[in-house]
Amino acid sequence: MTPPGPLPLPALHASHGGHWLRAGDGTTRAVSKGDAIMAAADTPVLLLNAPLVASRLGYPDLSGLDLLEAFAFVHPARFCVPTPRGLAEALGLPVPESDAAVPELLQQAAGALAAMCQSPDWPEREGAWSALQTLERLRWPWAQVLKPHIAKPERAERWLFARLPEWEEAGERPAPRQVELSAEAVQAQLARLTGEGAESREGQRAYAADVAKVFAPRSAPGRPHLALAQAGTGIGKTLGYLAPASLWAGQSGGTVWVSTFTKNLQRQLRAESRRAWPVKRPDGTPPVVVRKGRENYLCLLNLEDALQGGFAGRPAVLAQLVARWGAYTRDGDMIGGDLPGWLGTLFRKRGIAALTDQRGECVYAGCPHYRKCFIERAARDSAQADLVIANHALVMVNAARARDPNQRPTRLIFDEGHHVFDAADSTFAATLSGQETIELRRWIIGPEKETRGRRRGLSARLADLASYDDAGAEAIAAACKAGQLLPSDGWLQRLAENAPFGPLEALLAAVRTATYARDESGGVDAGYGIETEAAGLPGEVIEAAAAAAEALASIRVPLIRLGGRLEAILAEPPDWLDAQGRARIEGARFALAWRIDLIAAWEALLDRLGGPADPEFVDWLAVDRSDAREFDVALNRRWLDPMKPFARVVLEPAHGVLLTSATLTDRGTEGFGDDDRWASAIARSGAAHIEGEPLLSAAESPFDYASRAEVLIVTDIAKGDLPALAGAYARIIEACGGGVLGLFTAIRRLRSVHGRIADRLARAGLPVYAQHVDPIDTGTLVDIFRDDPRASLIGTDALRDGVDVPGHSLRCVVMEQVPWPRPDILHKARRLAGGGSAYDDRIIRARLAQAFGRLIRSKEDAGHFIVLSPAFPTRLLSAFPQGTPVLRVTLDEALQRLAAGVLGKQTARSGDALQP
User: Fold this and answer.
1) Rounded to the nearest 5°, which phi and psi values hold at 350?
2) Roughly what angle, to the nearest 10 degrees, separates helices 539-571 and 579-608?
3) Model confidence pLDDT, tens digit, residues 464-492
4) DSSP 83-136
5) DSSP letters along 324-377, please?
6) How much of the chain, in percent, has pLDDT values that exceed 90?
7) What stretch of H or E contains 680?
8) Distance between start and end Cα atoms, the chain
C-alpha cells in the first residue's frame, strides 16, 4: 500500500529548543520567535497542541490547524500521546529524529488523516460527514481541509442520540449466598489468574490466603471482617486480591467493590480483571464495571443543549468533537476514560466540565435521553456486576447516601489504602463557602438573567408536581424565594467593595475581614491563602452567623416539606405517574435529601461559632487565594479523626473490608517493633472504632533494592538558593539523559526552576514537562513522560503517588527537599492530638516511601532516588526499604554516580553508606 502523501500546508513547530517553519513547498528553516508568530498570524499553519505552542511562543491568541483536533475528529475515542513522537506512532509514521524534522511530520500526519477519511476501512466513518457540515458553519479551520476527502453518504447518517443503545431494567439481584472459601480453591484460582508457567511467588500466595478471610460470613452486626494488608511493590497484590474476590463472587452471586485513589490504578484493574472475567456474559451484560461519580460522565442533555446553541464559538466546536466521541466511547467516561485528556485543554475553557452533571441538576426520568444515559447505565450495570471498580470518594458517598440502600457495597477492597484517611477527611467535611452557596442557589433557582442554557431549577424540574399538588407548589415557591438570600454572581467583587447583598454574603464579608485582620502567616504578601481559627471571633462574625443560619433554615424547611410531598405522591400515586415519573420523583427525593443534609451541616457549623469548641472537630475561617487573587471565602469544619464517621458509615454496615497498600504501615525508627509499625495503619483505617481486632498481614517486596537502587542525599545545595537548585536539576537530567521525575513541595519553586532550565535542556534534546506550567492535564503529562525515555517531568503532590512508569522512562526520582507537612490549622490540631513531632515524622516517612515507590516498579527497574537537602534527618531514613544503600554526597559526587550508572552494592564508598 502506498503511504499517504503530505498535505502541502505550512507547518510550525515550537519548543524550548527553538522554532521551525516548513513551507508548503517542502523547505524547512529555523525562525525567530517573532517570525514564527507572524507566520501563524498571516495564514493557518499546521500545529501540534496549539495551547502548548502558544505558551512556548508567548502568544496566547495563537490559532491554526491543530492536528490533535483533526485526530479527535477522525479517530474519536482512540488514544494518542500529544507529542510528535506519539502522533507518529499513532498514525504509523516515522518518528522525527529532531525538532527540525517535526514540521515535515506534521504535513505527513495531516496527509495520513486526510487519506483515512477516504479509506473504505475507516472505522469511525458514520456521523463524520454530518458533523463536518456543522463544523464548517462554525468555521472550524479543519473543515475546509477535510471536506474534499469525506464523501457524502448515500443514506442519511444517524445522529448520536439515535445511535446510542438503550439500557434495560433488570430484576433486583438476590442477596449473596454465605460461602466459605477453602484455601485450596483460593490458591487454585490464583494459579489460574497468574497463568500457566508463571513464577510462583510465596508472598503473593500468603497474601491471597489472608485476603480470602474477609469474605467469610460475618459473625455479628457491626463487626465486619477487617484486614489490613501491607503488600510490597512486586508482590502482585492486584491478582492476589482478585483471586479470592472472583472466587467469592462466583460462588455467592454477590458483588465485590474495589476502590482506588488514582485513575491510573482503575485502568490497570480493568485490564487485570480480564483474567478473571470475560468482557461480556452470555446475556451481554458486563461482569466488571468501572463506576465513578456522575460528574465524570457525559451528560447527554447538556450535550444536546450545547449542540443546539448553548455553546458558541470555540466551545461549540468542542461540543461537536465530544459528540463524535460520544458515538464511539466505551462508557461515556470523560475524566480518565477513553476521551483524550488533552481534548479539553485545546479549548482553554471549562467546556468539558459544562458537558457533565457538575451541579447535580439531573432530571432523571424527565430527561429525553434517560434510557440512553451513560450514568444510569453504569449504575444499573454495577448493580448486576461481579466486580465494581470505583474510587474512595464514591464508595464513601455511596455508603452514606446511596439512592438504593440495598446497593450499598458490603464486600470492599480499598487498594491504595494509605489514602483512605485523606478521602474520608474530604468526604465527611463541611465547607460553607461562596462557591458552595452559589452552587446551591443555582440548583434551587436555576440560571438567572442572560445565562445560557435551559432553566433547570426546582420549578422546572418539578413542574408537573407543582401543577398537580398545591402544597408541593407552595414548598417549591418558598424554597425559590428563600434561595434569593444565597450569594449570586459577582459576590466576590461585592465583598471586596464592602457591599455584600443578603445575610450569607454578609457572613462571608465578616469572615473575610476577620481572617485578614488576624493573619500572621505572611501569606497575604506572598499571595497565598490565609486562615484563622474559629475561636475568639469578633461580635460581627457571630451576629452575621446567626442571621445566615436563619436564612439557611428558611431554605431547609420548605425543602423538607417538598420532600414530604414527594413521599406522599409515591405512597398514593396519581393516575398520570408512570414508571418513568416514579423514577424521576425518586431521583428528586434523593437530591433533596442530599441538599437538606448539606444545609443542616452548615447550620451546625454556624451554631458552634462563639460557643465552646467541640473536641471532635476542627473549625476555621479561610480566604482562598492563588497568585494573590481571591477565589473563595469559607468556614471549614473537619473531623479531628475522620475515621470515626468512616467506621460508622462504611465499615460497620459492611461484611468484609480489606485495606491494602505498599505503604500502609509506618517503618518507624530503627529498632521499631510490630506494634509501632502497625499503630499508624490501625489508627488511619478506622479499625480502632469498631468491635473486633483487624487481621494484620505483611508481604515484603521481592525486589533486590540493595543492588537495583540507592538513595543519594545531596549535602551542598543550600535551602532557598534557587539558582543552585535549578542548576542541580539541570545537571542531574543531563547526567541521566532524561528519565527524571522531579517532585516539588511548592509550585513557585517548580515554576522558577522550570523557567531556568527548560530552554537549555531542550537544546540538548532533553525535553522537560512541568505540571502547573504546561497547559496539559496531569494524566497526559504522565503519558508523555512514559512514552519518551529522554523526557523528564516535574510536578507536585499529584505525581508523588499513583504514577506508574515502569522501565527505562523513569530512572531517577529527585525531591527538592524533605516533604514537611504544611503547618496549617488542621494539621496543627491533629499534630497535637497525634503525638507532636512523631506525627509529623510518620507523614514524612509515608510521603518518602510513596515517592521512592515510583522508582522501582518491576524487577528489571533500577535507578537513583535523590533528595536535594543537606538537612535530611537520619530518623527518616527508615522510610526506604531495608537494604537500600543511602549515601550523603556532594552534587558532583552524585553526578559522577549517575553518569557512571553506579548503583547499590556497586558503591565503592561503603563507609559513607547509611542503612535505613
Assistant:
1) -80, 50
2) 160
3) 777 778 888 899 999 999 999 999 999 99
4) SHHHHHHHHT-PPPSSGGGHHHHHHHHHHHHHHHHH-TT-TT-TTHHHHHHHHH
5) HHHTT-SS-B-SSSSS-TTTGGGG-STHHHHTB-TT----GGGSTTGGG-HHHH
6) 67
7) helix 674-683
8) 59
